[in-house]
Structure formats: C-alpha cells, structure tokens
Structures
1.
Amino acid sequence: MSASATQRHLPLPEPDLTPQEMIRRAIALQPRLRAEQEETERRGVHSPALDEEFHKAGFYRCIQPRRFGGYEFDLKTFYRLAIELARGDASAAWGVILGAGHALMLGSFFDADAQAAAFGPDGEFSAPSVAAPTGTATPVDGGWLIKGTWTYASGAPYATHFMPSVLIPGDDPKHPGIGLAVIPRSQWKMLDDWGAILGMRGSGSNSIRVDEARVPLNHVVRIDMRNTDLAQGTPGARLHNNPMYAGRSLSFFHAELVSILTGLGYAAIDEYEKIIRSRDTIWPPFTPRYQHHHFQRTLGLAIGMVSASRRLALDAGDAYIEHCRRGCAGGAPFSLEDDLELFASLEHAGRLVWEAIEMLFRTSGSSGAKNGERMQRYYRDASMYRTHISAQYDTVALLLAQVHLGLANGF
C-alpha cells in the first residue's frame, strides 16, 4: 500500500452538498423519470441525458468514500435516494443504485492502492457486481488472469468497472476459493442481451463477458460475499475511519432492492389514486370509485403496507451501521447471524410491497393491464423482484434458523 494512496484526497464536485439536497434532486426528477418510462424500457436502460443528470446530482457518489471524491453519506440517505428515484422509474433506479452501491464494497474490502486506481483521478465510479461466481481468477506473474461470463450485471451500460465474484482454483477442484475482483471497463465486454424479460427492462442488466482480463494482485480479494470474515476488520474501515466500510453484503444488498421496490410501491399507489379519481363504479348507483369503500380500503391497506416497508428499509441502514460500529469499537464483529436476521426482516418488507402492488393491480381494473399502462409496468417490475433469488424468504429463514441453533456456520 503506497503512502500516496493513503494520503490522497480528491476534490468533491460540490463540497457543501447535503443529504437533504440530494434527496430533493431525486424527487424533482420524478416527473421526468415517469415521462420517460416507456422509452427507458424500450431502450433497455435510461437515456445518456438522464445519466448525465444523475452524475450532476451526485447520485453515483452518495456512499463513495470522501477521500476518493465521494460524499460518504450514510446508508439511510442512500436507501431514501433509491426510494425516490424508483417512485419515478424503478427500472432506471435499479441500474443506478446497484451501479452506485458497489462503491461500498470497493471502499470496504480493497486496499488503498486498489481503491485509488478504481476511483481514478476524478472519482467517477460505477460498477455492477454479480454474486454468482461464474468465472475464474487464476494467479499469474504479478497479478490475476480473469475469464468468464456473468449474467444480470445491472448498471452495465454506464459502468466504469465490473466487480464480479470469481472462483479461485486451488488444491481441491470441487471446492475452489471465492474472491471478489475489480476490473476496468477496458477489459470487459457488455453483451447485447437485455430486454426480453418480463420486467425491469430498463435496468441495463446486460451480461458481461471477460475474455482475458489481467489485473494487479490487489484487484482481487479472497472473500465470499455471502459470509465475509470480519474478525480482523476491513482495510476500508481503517483507511476511511468510518464503520460504514466494515460491514457485510447480504443485508446491505437486499436493502437496496427493497428500497427500490418500496419506491415502486409508492408509484403504484400514485397510479391507483389517479385511476380511482378518474373512473366511476361499473354498477349503479354510479359514483366515483374513490368515494366507494372498496377502493378506499384497498388504497389504505396499500399505503400502510408500503409505508411499513419504507420504515424497515430506512431503519436497516441504522441497524447495519450499529453492527459495524460495535465491531470497530472492539465488540463482537458483525456476524453472519446479524446479517441474516437483518436480511430476513428486509425480505418480509419486500413481501409487503409485493402483496400491496399485486392487490392494487388486480383491483384497478383490466384496463390497467393493457400494454403501455403504468399499472401493468409496475406489476411486471415488481414480479422481477419477487422472482429474485434473494427474495426467497423461506430459503433464508431456514439458514437463519440453522445458524441461530448452531447447526450451520455458513452457506
């Protein structure tokens, strides 16, 4: 680790930017995001012009370390940013938030030289990450040779880097090691294979192929993102003197997804209210739907369910930091059970929103299911969350119970 990297401090684009102003900017962009939903979905990713707005607003730098050009805001701010962007377009928010969020992984697990190289001279950084290790990292002279293809690399179109999980060959071919790599864009190719899917079509979740990337030794760290050993702390917590960079991955990642889904839930509520205010009941006595107790009850249930998810997602940011802070202060390290417990609670927050959106969809009328209707799009987008591997709450519940009972210590 070089002294220049540990002493480096990049200038911030807006040194006085506050979390409140960043959130205000996200809210202000909601009408434009909503207006461009159909075009974003058709393209497979939000427009270059919108991406420029996201950069100018500082969204990609929200939780990026301050010494490397980021604002280093807390996780609650980041999750609220996800909610507000997703209220405009969950598909676009998915790509932006997942691309920006992996600055936390880079800032936590890699040494100062690797961080300095990846964040670069101007602090412009965005990177998809794929947890499934469908490629390999093989030691070569002075570094690593990385090969493989990874699917669902959300945020790939505008990314500067890629951070995949990789298999590291060892003595036992049945049980290779697992690591996390950081690869500059010049050494990977984005495949044109996104869009032919039910929902989240504008998230830019293209596959990435790496033919023969060569990276320095410190650009691969030997950690399993499902169960990271924090007994010795992290390079990032020591470098940045911030416990936010001393955490795990499961609950952090799922809080991103639930925050996006929560914003989508609010978007569905907005659309439902628009529908019931503009249409009458179909049987006499004809009255505006919003004056009928059936639609009032449905709306009230949905508001309560989505608001509960919002509170759980934002509180998860505080709980995550408390686990990190305890470990940095010499207490018990942030454990797998801590991570799974937080993860499981977030899954139930996601389940609440999914059930709310499904209820709004089926009671809004068949006209809302037509192609081009926002309610149809919101239902399709929510379905993609529900089918995500990390949203299978019964699977995580089993592992949480096994870890809690001392019957398992990992995946």
Note: The CA atoms of residues 117 and 171 lie 31 Å apart.
2.
Amino acid sequence: MVKVAAIQMCSGTDPERNVARMEALVREAHAAGAVYVQTPEMTGALQRDRAGLGAILRPEATDLVAASASALAGELAIHVHVGSTAILLEDGGVANRGLLFGPNGSLVARYDKIHMFDVDLDNGESWRESAVYRPGDEACVVDLPFGRIGFAICYDIRFPQLFRAEALAGAQVLTAPAAFTRQTGEAHWEILLRARAIENGAFVVAAAQAGLHEDGRETFGHSMIVDPWGRVLARVGGTGEAVIAAEIDLAEVAAARRKIPNLRNAREFHIKDPVTVRSAVA
C-alpha cells in the first residue's frame, strides 16, 4: 500500500504566487502521508495573453515551478510530479511540460504534452493550443519505488491509444493532470478518467485546475483518483484549492488484469475496403 495525492489549484497569471500555493498544498499532502504528489496542468500560470505568457516564460533550468518542486521533493523525501508548466525551449518554442522529481530532488522524467487542444466549442469558446505550444512526440513511462507510472496531460485523455501503449509497457498508474474547460468537463471528465482506468486495469491520478481564473477562463476541477476497476477512490468539487489522497495497492492492478485480460487478448486486425451498396433501378 502506498498513499498518492493530487492537489487542485486555481492558478492565476503570477508564477510566484502560484508557486507559493503549490508549495503549501504539496506540504499538506505530505503531512497526510503521501509519497507521490501530483499538481495540475499549467501549475505555473494560466495566461491566455501571448505577450503576458512570453513575459513570464523561462527555460526549464531556471523555471520557478521546477526549482520549487525539486526543492520540495528533496526536503520532504517524496516524489513531486508537476502536472505541467510552460517551458521556454532553446529555439524559442514553448512546451507544455510535465516534470517528475524524486526524493533526492533530482529530475526523474519529463513529458511534453502530445495532443494539442485545438477546438471550437458550441458555447463560443475557441482554443488553439498549437498556436503557442509545440507538441511532444514521445510517451513516457518510468519506474518509481512503488510502481511504474505513465504520463499524459489533459487533452491526451481523449486518445486511448496513448494510455494503452503505456499500459502495455507496464504502467500500473496512469496520470492525467488537467485544466479541463467547464463545458467539456461537465460532459466527459469523469467518464474519460474511469474509462482509461477500466480499459487498462490501472490506477488513474488526475489533479485539476478549478474555478474562474485571472485570465478569464473557467476550469472544471473535480480532481480524482480512480482504481483499476473504475471506482473513484477520492474526488473533490469544481471550485477552489484542495488536496485529495488515497491508499493504492498495486496488487489490484494485477488482479484487475487477471479478471479482464483485455491487454493480453487484444488482436491485430484490418478494416476491409468500404463496400458501396447501390439501389436497384426500377
């Protein structure tokens, strides 16, 4: 048994203020016994204005969130998973990057969000994440002392092939830190998280942004931890900061995969060429 935690935030446009809130919430999770703590997508800042974002961007080596998470992980001797933060790349591009720090403060893994949120919603919201961020092209699975975890960020949750590939690579815990919009979250958030858990026989940990943010967007919240059978072990509502935690037993992963061995039973197949049926002419 090991205790994992997800912290829910309402990040604003000031990275220093967001980092201070992250630190307080990570400490709260640690005090509750968590050895792995996950923060939401865009922990460092939610900033729609490109000029405003450009003014606060830093390379990973000097990023405030990365430095704080590294220091916290080392001080508390836990794993701190920054769900994501905006990172300035060497060539001037920007990555939506997740970072995992180990109990000695060292960087264990990084993951750049693969799927960009380029959508037009029927409530008038329009998002073009690819206009700002460069998508990643590598999935990430890493071994921790308590088990193997796979990485994803927000919109990635809608692409089951990513989670399946990580499960087939041995991931027992799948992660989905997010800043889901309220409209899409109300419709799909819980269903998607539970589906990814069930179809892969894995735990899912999803820390979320929640509430009305300084840049004008509204996120759904409802951070959640789900077990391999699709049961919600911990959750919180849709507004405000919070810490949720749950004891997980990785033996449940093996048990779920024995009961429903779909990872093992999957078969290759192909789709036949479409057949056109023509109506008889009288």
Note: Helices lie at 15-31, 50-56, 64-76, 160-168, 182-200, 251-259, 262-265.
3.
Amino acid sequence: MTTQNTPTSPRLAGHALVEALIAQGVDTVFGVPGESYLAVLDGFHEHAASIRFIACRQEGGAAFMAEAQGKLTGKPGICFVTRGPGATNASIGLHTAFQDSTPMILFIGQVASDQRDREAFQEVDYRQMFGPGTLGMAKWVGECHDPERLPEYVARAFHTAMQGRPGPVVIVLPEDMLTKPITAPVVAPARPAEAAPTPAALAELRERLAAAKRPLVIAGGGGWTAEATEALQHFAERWQLPVGCAFRFQDLFDNAHPNYAGDVGIGINPKLAARVKDADLILAIGPRLGEMTTGGYTLLQAPRPAQALIHIHAGAE
C-alpha cells in the first residue's frame, strides 16, 4: 500500500475517514445515525456528491444490507452504527458475514477517550465482544486513538477484509478522536493477493478426476464473480461432474442446469446425502465445510473424511 507523497490540508478526522472510503472506491454506505460519530456524518454531507449514506431504521437491517453488498460485489460492504445497542443490533449481520466469508467493515462510534474504562453510557469493549479468531465475529477488531493514523486503519481494514478468506472487520471510533484536525493523507486502495495452484497440483487433480468413479463438486464460499461461476459451469460440463451448492450458496450454480445436484445444506435430499457419502472424490470449491454443509459433520467426517477430499479454500485455518 502507498500513500500520497505529501500531507493534505487539515480537516477533521471524521471527514478524512469519508475521504478514505471514497479513495477505496466506496460510493454507498449503510447505517443508523448516532451521536458518537457525528463528525463522520458531517463528512458524508460534505462529500454527498461522491458517496451516499443510506440511513436505515435499525442497525440489524443496515448490517445485512452491507453484508449483501459485500456478497454481491466482492468488495467490503460498509456499515456505520453507534455504540452499545447500535453495535449489538448490528452483530447479527456481522456474524453472518463471518460465517459466509463476506467482506464487510463495521464502523462503531465509541465513547470519548477520557471516558473509557469507566462504564460510560453504552460503553462496550468491542475487542472483547467481537474478538477475532476462528470462533469470533470478525477477522480483526481495531480501535483508533490517534487521528493521524485513521487512514492507515481504514486501509488495513479493507486489506484484511479481502485478503485470504474474505470476512468482516470492525473499526472502533472514539468520539473525540473524530473531531480532531489531521493532515494525514489517504492510503491507496487495497489489493488482495491472488493465489493459484501449481501445475503439478493441477496435473494431480486431472489424474484424480479421471480415475474417480463417483466424483462430486460442492461449491460455495465468498469471492465468486460472474466469470468464475461461468468457468465452474464449463468445468462441470467438461468433466460431467454433479455440482451441489453449499449452505447459503444455493444459487451459485444454475439450479436448472443438468449438472446441478441440489442443495448441500439444511434439509438435504436424502438421495443427495447418500451421494455425498458414497462419493469417491469430493471437490469442495470455496465453501467452509461447517456444520450445515456437512450435515452435522456426518457427510464429511472430521478430521478424516471417508471420501478423498480436495478442498480449495482461501483461509489458512
């Protein structure tokens, strides 16, 4: 990531945050206005020609709108909420983004710095609440106290949300920090690293597919583009592979296509469940093999599935 060479003219940190979002290519954000980030709302008003703030009636709806935008575009959906109940209402959309590998950034207004750790009105420790990790709700939770570093935090949030397995990030914004003037420049748009299998791995895949008698593809996860779904369809046709769609990705593969096998999720067709269990090769392209997609970890047993399994997934975990 690179920044502009020289600092910009002083402006409020809340306004700089909006400029940082615009620099990342964001033109629409969702949220419920709150007193803890008024400086940011003022920034949205100042830059209304470049970015729009869609005011929602409840933070849960705003979070789901941002999650849906992230899922549809492959770029982080943006949500702004105020502290306490605003954050807890938004947590359901955040958790959905985490489990569905959807890039999303939730900005939360926080109590002023001089009130922290005093149980101020609606004060919550969001690093504890949303604690990152395999069983958390976010890939990273950052709280910015130095206004000059705010563009850095925004850039890191975008990078983290899109890098590897996509997912949500939380940025906490102390109220007093947003009202301080800063000269820090915005940071260039984040670009996630792209990975590809080695030629040897592709050769092994071809050998395994050619030898398999009962192969099955399970497709899902985040990051799919129109070109990728089209390529998946051509791949399935070329190898005559049945394709099942993972939990909450039922429309990833054309349900009217002759190679469509069904929904590998809640209430799975018993015949499809038997097909998964009887497969001699499972090619899981993108999905997280969680409880719903594996029928409570019975269709694909952990840690050693009965079937040969090739799992293509962006997360190192």
Note: The radius of gyration is 22 Å.
4.
Amino acid sequence: MLFSSNRLFSSIALCLGLFLGGLTSAQAQSNVTLTGKINNPVSDSVLLELYTVPASYSGESHTVALSKNGEFTITAPVKEPLLGELVHGSESVILFLQPGDNLDVRANANDFLNTVKMKGEGFEENSYLLEFELKFEEEEDYQVLPDNIHKREKEFLLFLEERRQDQRKFLEKFLKEHQTSEAFKNYAKAQIEFSYANDRLTYVDIRKRVGDLPPKLSPDYYDFLNQVDLNMPGAVRNQAYLDFLNNYFQFKALQAKPANLERDYYPTLYAMAKQELKGTARDMMMARILSQAFRFGYVPDTDAMYLDFQKEAKDANFISYIQDQYKQFRRVGLGSTAPAFTLLSAEGDSVSLSSFKNKMVYLGFWRTHCGICTVDQQAYKYFAEQLAEKDVVLLQVSVGEDLNTWKKNVAQKKYPGIHLYAPDLSAKILKDYDVKSFPAYFLIAPDGTLISTNARRPGHAEGAREIAAAIDQYHKSAKK
C-alpha cells in the first residue's frame, strides 16, 4: 500500500503575519513581499500559503483582498528558504521563497498557469520552477500515467532514465545562465532525483491500480534503493522527497513482515526513519509517522513513540507540531481501555460493558436511515452463525431511533445478539468511542482493551472470517 506521487498543490495552509507600514532593513531581510495583479479575477482575494513545517499537512492561512483593478500586496515573515503557494480560486503557482525576496507575480485567471509572469528578487528561481512544471509535469510524454506505466520493466526504466537526463540537462543549462542560492540548487536537484526514485519504487503498485498484471521484475530491480541518498542536502522541503520517503519506509516495513502488521506497522516505520535519516529529515519523518499513529496506531506503542520523540527530536517546529497533534488526536484507540457504558436494552433492562468482563465483545453502532447499516443488519444473522464457535458477545447500539419503534423492530426481526439504545447523536458513548460516521464497529478483548477500532462489518464478504482471525490472533498472543 504505497502512496501515489502528487504534484505539490496540496491544501496545506499556514498562517502568515501581515506587516503594514514601514519595515527596517533587518525586518525586510526576514520577510518576503509579493505584489502583483490578477486579470479577470474569479474571486475577490488571493491566498499565500507557506509550507513552514514540511509534511505537517495542517496549519492556518492568510488571505489578502484584491483591489478594484485586481492588484495585491502581501508581506510575510520568511526566516529560511521554503516553498509557498499563491492561490486564486482553484488555480495556484508554487513559489520558492527566500528571506528578502521581493517578487511581482501577475496572471490571467482564465489561464492561470500559462499566463503567469514574474519579475523582481526571486524571479530566476521561480521562473525555473514554472518552466520545469510546464515542460515535465504538463507534457504527457514525461508522465508515468496514463501510457508509460504499461511499459515492461526494461522500457519503463529507459523512459525514467531518459526523463531524468532531460531534466538534469534542463537544470544544468539554467544554472549556467543564472546565479542562484545553494539552497535552490539543492532543492532543484532533489526534485529530479527523488521523482525518478519514487516513480521507480511505485512502478509495481501503480500498475496494479490501473489494472495491469504485476510485472515480472529482475532480481536486482530494487537494488537502486541502496544508491539513494536519503539525507540529500536541500531535499527536506521537496514534495518528491516526501513522497519517496513515505513509499520507501512503507515498502521496507512490508518487506520486514512484522508478526502483527496492524499493531507493529507504525513502530516499524518509526524505528526505520529514526535509524536511516539524519537532522531535520529525521525529525520530519518521525513526526509524520507519529501524526498518523495518533489517528490509527496502537495506543500504548504510540505513547511510547511520543515519549521517545520528545527526547530525540531537535527541531523546535516539529516538537511543537507533534505536541499539538498529540493533544488533538490522542484518543480511544488500539490497545487503550474500551470506555465503560451502561445502556438500555431491547429487553427493557440496563446493560453495562463491565457485564462482559473476560469475554470477547464485538460492538457496533448503527442508524435506521443508514443504507450500509441496513445491509449489515440483513447479514447479521449469518455473521453471528459464523462466529458462534468463537464465544464472542455481539452488542449492537441503535442511535437516534424512536424508542418504541426500535423495540418493536428488534422483536419482530429477531436480530441475534444484544441490542442497546442510544437516544441521539449527543449520547456520551458516541463521544467516548469517537464515532463520527455509521456504521462503526469495534472489537474489545476479554481484558477490556480495544483490539480493533475499525473492525470488519457484518455485511462485508470477509467480515466474519476476519473477525474470527483477529480473535484467534488475540488468544494466540495471550498464551505467550
């Protein structure tokens, strides 16, 4: 399961301070100023996004109103070279911004990318990025999709190498004709090398996704990974580099085949990134993995990684980012104790989770007017029969239905398991289990910890088989 490579037009928005009035020389050197004009505007504003914390995928944005004739001015703090994105409507242009840049950007909203004109301090670097994109990211001959992915290994590698050589020559010609900073040179080189590496690494996965048969690879196909400089200078802010790292560590984690992939996946990624990366790249990738683990990982292991990160990380931006992520997303999850509850049953008595101590519990949440929920309820009897030998308690919580109607339906349809009632979406149990959509299913171990926060649905073709396998895996691990 590898991430696909994307152009860097993601909607990451980070706050920019707008300074009005005069600036001292020192202040000007720690800021960038963007002026410009949008002809035939489609909205009354422009947005500048700064990617101040690479791979963070969160933040704030700053919007500036256009004047009556479409002009704008933005002054923003920039203390080191980074990427920004100037956005108008649904169109945008990527900018490489350095302290002291004073860049004028003009475009026609009817054909934004093809009409962008720039001048001023920072013009050379950003003209290169624009020309590079138009040549290598807009022309189909240089794209993996839709046609080149169908090539066999030898022809595909030839395509990648020819593209890389064309890109290198394009950069070399530019550098001979323009004076640029070392930071930009490194950034541009990283764009080329990691685009190549990422497209080669994801070749098999993308072919599968477009419906091709998996290619027969040479035994040494992945040997190129040993030659990739994971700590290449200037790569940290490059999207191609981030795409590659995501796919590289996922590839290695799957190759490592941990005993319990669901539980050990994020710790495996984290340990690899910690060992193989250095400096800012190391902090960036460990933070990226932790952010995902907060949402989807095994809670005890995630907490352990979080404590380790506090000791290991050096970059204050990533430390602050992860602390905020931990506060925001630390939740009920794999390995945490299932929240206690007591609810009314269809039989008219009160039922508590604690009543099933030392029992495996399959807990579901559903609503009457949910189409998938209806499918699951229709499959529930067969699901229960398949799990009969596993001694699992089936608890189903109906949310928001009229109480009397619900009791009548449960009695008439004779659904298996124990049916419980939550009056509406404000019910405490929904908040405790962080249920935001329906249906939702959880698997709770006999010791009260959560084995799965996204258990297979009863209506899924492999639902009962996968739940049975998870139960067997738990009992197998408990005996060790």
Note: The domain at 25-120 is CATH 2.60.40.1120 (Immunoglobulin-like).
